[in-house]
Design goal:
The chain is of the alpha/beta class. It has a domain of about 150 residues: 3-Layer(aba) Sandwich (Rossmann fold). The chain has 9 helices and 8 strands. Helix 1 crosses helix 9, helix 2 crosses helix 3 and helix 6 packs across helix 7. The radius of gyration is 16 Å and the shape is globular. The relative contact order is 0.19. The protein binds BIS(adenosine)-5'-pentaphosphate, magnesium ion and zinc ion. BIS(adenosine)-5'-pentaphosphate binds next to helix 1, helix 2, helix 3, helix 6 and strand 6.
Length: about 220
Amino acid sequence: MNVIFMGPPGAGKGTQAERIVSEFQIPHISTGDAFRLAMSQGTPLGVEAKGYVDKGLLVPDEITNGIVKERLAQPDCEKGFLLDGFPRTIAQAEALDQILQSLDKKIELVLNLAVDRSYLLPRLTGRRICKSCGSTYHVVFNPPKQEGVCDKCGGELYQRSDDTEEKVGTRLDEYTNKTAPLLEYYQKTEMLREVNGEQDIDAVTAQISSLLRGLA
Ligand code: AP5
Ligand code: MG
Ligand code: ZN
């Protein structure tokens, strides 16, 4: 099963992806996670990406497309994959079409998590992430049992550097200007489905899961 999760920053892409990949046993490919990993390791990619990610701006297409091309060619993508946060521009979507063609693969579903803008700032500023395993929490909507500590692995929770009010504003503008037009691009292909991401986390998972079971 080859799927794309779309939606604005804070829509719940990562939260839902964590659950869906564990049910369907496919790799979770998040370009945001890839950039954050490279940034934490201080690799040349990380140094370059940091200049954009820390400002809330999109990383240039050539850099991002290269990462995805390499990742999709890995053997674990044979049984399917979930792309989270890619593509995010029309040029990335066109590059993805070419990459998939060269690998003889096809996208089966583009899932848009629809959430009104008013929900996004509180979700993002309250988000906490585990330093060790990457699990996502929220101080109000999905709190860990013990404050600051991951339920799954005991790791320390941290706040993303781009989850401040100012950077969220820039990220939402980038989404509106560059990513939202992609919905029309995928609408034309008839692969696009929408789920209401304003419901509670379990309700959203149940709907996505049933959509995907329909594909399998
Ligand atoms: P990326 O990491 O992809 O960030 P994003 O798209 O801004 O999305 P988020 O991860 O912030 O939101 P999410 O939808 O995953 O929400 P989550 O599930 O965590 O990208 C970061 C940066 O990397 C970009 O700004 C850019 O610089 C660069 N980048 C990445 N991809 C790129 C690309 N393709 N091209 C160019 N640059 C790229 O949920 C958020 C919070 O809400 C959590 O605390 C969660 O617990 C809570 N929550 C989730 N669902 C619910 C719910 N239903 N009810 C209540 N709370 C909920
Ligand atoms: Mg995410
Ligand atoms: Zn953890």
